[in-house]
Amino acid sequence: MNTMIRVGLGSDIHALVEGRRLIIGGVEIPFAKGLLGHSDADVLLHAVTDALLGAAALGDIGRHFPDTDAHYQDADSRVLLRAVRDLLAEAGWRIVNIDATIHAERPKMAPYIPQIVACLAEDLRLSPGCVNVKAKTAEKLGFIGRGEGIACDAVALIERDAELHDA
Ligand SMILES: Nc1ccn([C@@H]2O[C@H](COP(=O)(O)O)[C@@H](O)[C@H]2O)c(=O)n1
Ligand SMILES: C[C@@]1(CO)OP(=O)(O)OP(=O)(O)OC[C@H]1O
């Protein structure tokens, strides 16, 4: 059986504002500010969701969950990610691995990384060894360095049986 592999890239940015909870990778992080968005603004899960959709050539998060649809207001991004996981599975795709980088001046993400990895692994039904999450500051440069927002980049590798191509 031949295997076909595809790679996908996802990125996202949300502004940090007062009066919002900070949720990154499905984990609520104690911080003075949170990310602004139509949903829970989980910048990491949105980047991973886009990486998966990109790999499968299925568009992007906004196409599947429009921010003009009240149904997704304050949505739990884990629910959106699981829906995309199921969409890929229905098309015969298996997720091989995920790698992601959170760009945040603060808070310090390191203490939360194991919980975030566990959360992603659970939602994607992967072993934790197939999920990697990193964090970088912006060395005080630009909007991230000023603490005005947080960005995330993610890549996803997926595979399926080549016989399913164009099925
Ligand atoms: N929000 C962040 C940013 C970084 N880290 C950890 O610190 C290391 C050094 O970051 P630099 O941006 O100074 O290179 C980085 O490798 C992370 O382990 C973090 O926990 N939270
Ligand atoms: C997730 C959606 C939908 O609630 O809204 P936001 O939380 O604003 O996030 P974004 O990263 O702009 O992704 C697409 C949106 O459609």
Automatic annotation (TrEMBL):
4-CDP-2-C-methyl-D-erythritol 2-phosphate binds at residues 12-14, 38-39, 60-62, 65-69, 104-110, 143, 146. Gene3D superfamilies: 2-C-methyl-D-erythritol 2,4-cyclodiphosphate synthase (3.30.1330.50). Residues 5-158 form the 2-C-methyl-D-erythritol 2,4-cyclodiphosphate synthase domain. PROSITE patterns: ISPF. InterPro entries: MECDP_synthase (IPR003526), MECDP_synthase_CS (IPR020555), MECDP_synthase_sf (IPR036571). The keyword Zinc does not apply. Signal peptide: none annotated. Involved in the biosynthesis of isopentenyl diphosphate (IPP) and dimethylallyl diphosphate (DMAPP), two major building blocks of isoprenoid compounds. Catalyzes the conversion of 4-diphosphocytidyl-2-C-methyl-D-erythritol 2-phosphate (CDP-ME2P) to 2-C-methyl-D-erythritol 2,4-cyclodiphosphate (ME-CPP) with a corresponding release of cytidine 5-monophosphate (CMP). Homotrimer. This is 2-C-methyl-D-erythritol 2,4-cyclodiphosphate synthase. It comes from Dentiradicibacter hellwigii.
